[in-house]
Every structure is written in structure tokens, then in C-alpha cells.
Structure to design on (478 residues):
């Protein structure tokens, strides 16, 4: 963990920096980026200003794609590069800053629902050797009566129809999932799964747990998310980039043990930091309010922090926080916090720690929308129990006694007069938050734009070297 915060500088001194090779734009722009479908989306919607969101690895094509889109639609295009949060989510906030009326999202996507602006997903059609994939499937499942659900990364969804034609006659019980970019209205009908932008029927007698999963795509967050959520199903995968197939040997139970350890840490925590990891997924404001109420009823203090993409250095500035909970899309919620100064849990793990009505059943939830009122996994908080009648509990980490009970919600009352202050000369009143006043006094406050307050100056040459030994500094010899 120490390497995440400091080093002896030896690695920086030995590192050689070379000129990065200029990335060349892709030749087949029309096919890979589906220019015709994207242009029809803009023209049919009558949009005059559109944001084009690219992940980092596709930014080399951004200028060429934007130019062709403007020429074919007559609309004004804005390129969104460095996204505020994960590149798999639609950055609606950045699009609104540009005044965009719609967003065209390129590259892999988590397919989390959006509510502010119309969105078109262009995944980018990566090549897939369908014949080799079908052969790998036959090797993994020699029994032709196997019940298998075929999942795929979104960049290979275009080839699933051809793969289905090759396998459906040989395997009568095979099921292919369908990519759905929008949430279907209402709950899923019986015998059908609608989750993570995938939709497929389940006809096995024992439900989904009687099925095996075959994933077409490289190892990554999407596959990890599927394996943790459907942890009772055996998984196998085919990587189109290498042409190799395998039975997934990732010990899911061991990964779940790690997550349950974090649940125990959340039970011991007294101060919790709620990290806002998305501003575009529908329902994020509702789950923020839900988590604040849950922590307040559990007798824990909470602070809401918007830090963009979390990293160890950012979160290490909040030493008072015992544990963080990340509100993000389903793929980005499973943050590996081994190198962080404090652990980072998911909203579901915080519910396991603070809601006595929720018990571990073996099912793991990564979509925070499942916890909201009216959702499939929502559980109301039980009535408060007096402290004298609460059952004591022993921490499995510290060995100390702790009381796990919910407090009564305090009666609403008007803020005291000392919490009001004059904000400006117009005599407008503002409420002073003790938590905000405390954090404002900290030395680290993040980046501030300070528009119009900083004088404009020409660029000048800065210091050269590393912080421990700049070239313009004189060092006395001992």
C-alpha cells in the first residue's frame, strides 16, 4: 500500500520517456462507427447540437468522425473525451455543459439507463471468428442437451445472430441473450431475465441456477460483474482477440469472501463517506438519499463527496472517514480498494452492514437501483429497538462489543438561529453546515475554476526535473 502514496524516486530517475507514436485514424470508419445509423438518429430527432463521447482508445478517430457527422447531418458536433467518471457511462453532465441536445456514445457501455438527454449507443463492431467460437463452444459443452445462456461483450453483439444459426440446431436448450439499450417498461415477465442491458428467457426447471453461462469477450469488469451476480452458475468464456476458450477458474467464493469482509468493516465504521461515482445513471439521487437515511438510522455519520474518478491519493485526504461507499454503475461499483487507505464498498454491502432486515442469501447485487423502493430487492428498515433491548454483537475484526440497532428518526425541527448567516449584500440567508465548515478548513479542497479571478498570462517555461531535485535549484555539497 505504501507504493500507492510514495516511492524513493528511483523508478522515476530510471524511466526513459520517448515520443508516443501518433495514432492513425481507423480506415473503415463507416462500418466500425455505423455512420449511417448515427446520422439517421441525428436527422430523425432534429438535433442541432450533438455530443460525441469517445473512450480514450478511440479518441484518434474523434476528429474524422465528427467531421463526417457534421457533413452528413448539418448539425454541430462536440467531442467529449476525458469523461467525468467511467467511460462506459454516458456523460450527460459534460453534454449539458456544451448545450448538446443528444449524445452519441461510442465504445463499450454498461447500458445504465439515462433520463436527461436522448442517447444512441454505437459499440464499435469488433471482428469475431464465428466458426472458431462455435468450435470452442462445442469443446466446452460436448453434451448437446446442455442448458447454456450465451452472453457477449457489447462490441461482439453484432455477430451473435450468426453464431446462433450455427449452434441452435445442435443445442436445442441454448439461449442467446439480447442487448437492450433502454430499460423495458415494467418488471420482467415470469421466466425472463432483464439485467445489465441483457434480456433472455430462462426455461430450466430450477431457474437460472440450472444453466451454464458462456461469455464471448475478453476478461474484464463486465465478466466479473456477471460472475458475482450469477455466482451459482458455472461460467466459461471465449476471448476473440486470442482465439482461446476456457472454463473460468476465478474463485467466485473467494471474491465473495473478500466482499463479505468489507461488510464487516462497514459494520465497524462510524464515519462513512458517500462517493458520487455517477451523475448520469437514473436513480442516483434517490439512492444517495436512501444511503443517508440508512446511515443516520444506524447511528453513523456520513459525508457526501464528489471526487470524480476515485484513486488512493484523493481519498487519503479524508482521514476521518472509516469507510467509503461508491455510488456508480454496476460495472464500476466493484472497485478493488486493496491499495486504498480506507476500503470502498458498494451500496448493497452497506445495506448488509446497516439494515438488520437484510440477510446474506448468496445472491449478490451490483445495481443500486435494485435497493430502491419498488424494486425487486428493496427491504424496508425495521422499527427502532431501544438500546437496552438491542442484542449485542462482537466484531469479527476487532473483537470488540458493538450494538447493532436502528435509532428512531428525529422529529423534524427548524434549524437554530445560529445556523443562518447573511450570504451577500442582498440579505439572502444561507444555512451553515458544520460538516461543510469543517471540511472547508482542510488544506486540500480539490480544483477550483475561479473564473474571472485569475489574471490571464502567457505560458512560460516551468521547472525541469523531479520534485526532489529541480535543475535550477542549488544543492550544497556536504
Amino acid at each position: 500500500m505504501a507504493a500507492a502514496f510514495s516511492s524513493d524516486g528511483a523508478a522515476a530517475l530510471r524511466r526513459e520517456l520517448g515520443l508516443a507514436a501518433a495514432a492513425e485514424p481507423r480506415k473503415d470508419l463507416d462500418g466500425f462507427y455505423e455512420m449511417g445509423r448515427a446520422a439517421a438518429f441525428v436527422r430523425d430527432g432534429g438535433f442541432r447540437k450533438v455530443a460525441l463521447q469517445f473512450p480514450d482508445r478511440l479518441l484518434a478517430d474523434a476528429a474524422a468522425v465528427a467531421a463526417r457527422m457534421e457533413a452528413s447531418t448539418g448539425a454541430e458536433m462536440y467531442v467529449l473525451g476525458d469523461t467525468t467518471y467511467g467511460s462506459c457511462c454516458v456523460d450527460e453532465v459534460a453534454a449539458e455543459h456544451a448545450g448538446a441536445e443528444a449524445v452519441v456514445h461510442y465504445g463499450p457501455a454498461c447500458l445504465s439507463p439515462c433520463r436527461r438527454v436522448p442517447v444512441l449507443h454505437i459499440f464499435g463492431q469488433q471482428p469475431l471468428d464465428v466458426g472458431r467460437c462455435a468450435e470452442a463452444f462445442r469443446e466446452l459443452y460436448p453434451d448437446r442437451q446442455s442448458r447454456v445462456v450465451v452472453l457477449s461483450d457489447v462490441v461482439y453483439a453484432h455477430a451473435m445472430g450468426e453464431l446462433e444459426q450455427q449452434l441452435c440446431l445442435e443445442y436445442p436448450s441454448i439461449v442467446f441473450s439480447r442487448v437492450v439499450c433502454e430499460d423495458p417498461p415494467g418488471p420482467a415477465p415470469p421466466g425472463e431475465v432483464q439485467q445489465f442491458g441483457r434480456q433472455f428467457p430462462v426455461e430450466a426447471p430450477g431457474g437460472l441456477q440450472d444453466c451454464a453461462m458462456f461469455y464471448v469477450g475478453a476478461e474484464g469488469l463486465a465478466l466479473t460483474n456477471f460472475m458475482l451476480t450469477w455466482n451459482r452458475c458455472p461460467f466459461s468464456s471465449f476471448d476473440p482477440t486470442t482465439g482461446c476458450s476456457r472454463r473460468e477458474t476465478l474463485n467466485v467464493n473467494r471474491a465473495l469472501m473478500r466482499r463479505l469482509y468489507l461488510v464487516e468493516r462497514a459494520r465497524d465504521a462510524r464515519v462513512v463517506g458517500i462517493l458520487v461515482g455517477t451523475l448520469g445513471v437514473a436513480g442516483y439521487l434517490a439512492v444517495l438519499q436512501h444511503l443517508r437515511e440508512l446511515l443516520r438510522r444506524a447511528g453513523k455519520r456520513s459525508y457526501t463527496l464528489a471526487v470524480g474518478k476515485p484513486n488512493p491519493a484523493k481519498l487519503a485526504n479524508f482521514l476521518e472517514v472509516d469507510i467509503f461507499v461508491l455510488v456508480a454503475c454496476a460495472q464500476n461499483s466493484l472497485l478493488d480498494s486493496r491499495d486504498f487507505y480506507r476500503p470502498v464498498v458498494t451500496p448493497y454491502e452497506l445495506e448488509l452492514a446497516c439494515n438488520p432486515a437484510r440477510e446474506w442469501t448468496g445472491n449478490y447485487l451490483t445495481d443500486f437501483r435494485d435497493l430502491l423502493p419498488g424494486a425487486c430487492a428493496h427491504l424496508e428498515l425495521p422499527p427502532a429497538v431501544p438500546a437496552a433491548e438491542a442484542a449485542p454483537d462482537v466484531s469479527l475484526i476487532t473483537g470488540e462489543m458493538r450494538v447493532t440497532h436502528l435509532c428512531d428518526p428525529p422529529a423534524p425541527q427548524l434549524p437554530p438561529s445560529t445556523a443562518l448567516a447573511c450570504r451577500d449584500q442582498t440579505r439572502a440567508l444561507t444555512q451553515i453546515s458544520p460538516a461543510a465548515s469543517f471540511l472547508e478548513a482542510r488544506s486540500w479542497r480539490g480544483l477550483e475554476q475561479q473564473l474571472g479571478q485569475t489574471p490571464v498570462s502567457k505560458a512560460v517555461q516551468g521547472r525541469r526535473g523531479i520534485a526532489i531535485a529541480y535543475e535550477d535549484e542549488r544543492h550544497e555539497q556536504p
User: Anything to note?
Assistant: The CA atoms of residues 154 and 169 lie 24 Å apart.
